Amino acid sequence: MILRTVFLRIVLFIAVWWILTQGRADSWGVGLISIVSALIVSLVLLPPGLFRFSFAGIFFFLLYFLSRSLKSGIQVALMAARLDPGFHPNIQEIPLRLPEGLGRVILVNTLNLMPGTLSVDLTASSLYLHVLDERQPIEAQVRDIEKLIAHMLCVELEES
Amino acid sequence: MAIPELLSSIFLVMGAAFFMAGTIGLLRFPDVYTRLHALAKVDNLGLGLIILGLLFQAPGLTVALKIILIWLLALAASSAVSFLIARRALNRGVAPWKAKEQKI
C-alpha cells in the first residue's frame, strides 16, 4: 500500500517535470534532484495511508467546481460593474464536519474560489467565512462541497 | 478565419473581460475582504478562459499540458494567498465593511 503510494507519487512528479521542461532530455539531472526532493517533502507533509482518492468522486467534484466557478466569476464581474454592488457582507461561523487534514485544506481553498465565500479563519472545530451576501444560503453550499470532498477522499463526515 | 482561431479569440476576449471586471472590483470594492473576493474569483475564471483560448493555439501536447498546469498552480496559489491575507487581516482586527442598513 505504501509502496504503491510512493510509486504513484514518483510517476506524478516525473510527469510534472516532463511537462515543465516540455520533454527536453538535457534537464533530467536537475529533474532527478527535484523529483527526489518533492517526494521527500510530500511524504513528510502528507504521509501515505491516511486517505485514498475515489476517481468518481474527483469527477463529480471537478464538475461541481467548474460549473460553480463560472457562476462565481460572473457574479463578481456583475458586482464590479454595477453602481451599487449590493453587498451585505458578514462573517459567518460554520461548524466543520470533515476530519482534520487534507480534506479541510481542500475545503478552505475551494470555498475561496466559489461564489460569495472567502475563508478567513480555521480553528479545530469551525471555519469562519466572509460572505458577500449574508442573505444567501451559504451553509447549504458549504455542506454540498463538504459532501463532495468526503466522497472524493473516501472519508466519513462527523456529526456537527 | 478558421474555427479554432475564432474560438481561441472568443475565449481570450472573454477572459480579458473578466480580468477587467476583477480589476475594477479590486479598485471599487470597499474593504480588504471584498477585494480578495474579486481577486481570487477572477484568477479562477478569467485565467481559466485565457488558458482555454491559448489551448487552441498550443503547438503540441507538452505545451498544452504546461498551460493547464500553470492554471492549476495559479489557482492553488491565489486561493491559499487569499486565505492567508484574510486571516492576517482578521487577526489584526480589520473589521469587515457593512452595508448602511446593516449598521442600524
Proportion of beta-strand residues of chain A = 5-15%
Average pLDDT figure of chain B: 88
Oligomer: heterodimer
Number of structural domains of chain A: 2
Report on this model:
The complex is a heterodimer of chains A (160) and B (104). Chain A has two domains: 2-45, no CATH class; 55-153, no CATH class. Chain A contains five helices and three strands; from the N terminus they run H-H-H-E-H-E-E-H. With 160 residues, chain A is mainly alpha-helical. The model of chain A has no long low-confidence stretch (mean pLDDT 88). Chain A has helices at 2-20, 28-45, 55-81, 102-113, 138-153, and strands at 90-95, 117-122, 126-131. With 104 residues, chain B is mainly alpha-helical. In chain B, 82% of the residues lie in helices and 0% in strands. Chain B has four helices and no strands. Chain B is elongated and about 55 Å long. Chain B starts with a helix and ends with a helix. The mean pLDDT of chain B is 88. Classes of the chains: A mainly alpha (160), B mainly alpha (104). At the A-B interface, helix 1, helix 3, helix 4 and strand 2 of A face helix 1, helix 2 and helix 3 of B.
Give the structure's gist in a few sentences.
The complex is a heterodimer of chains A (160) and B (104). With 160 residues, chain A is mainly α.
Present the secondary structure layout.
The complex is a heterodimer of chains A (160) and B (104).
Chain A: H1 2-20, H2 28-45, H3 55-81, E1 90-95, H4 102-113, E2 117-122, E3 126-131, H5 138-153
Antiparallel strand pairs in A: 1-3, 2-3
Chain B: H1 3-28, H2 32-55, H3 61-91, H4 100-103
Features:
heterodimer, A: mainly alpha, 3 strands, globular, B: 104 residues, mainly alpha, 4 helices, elongated
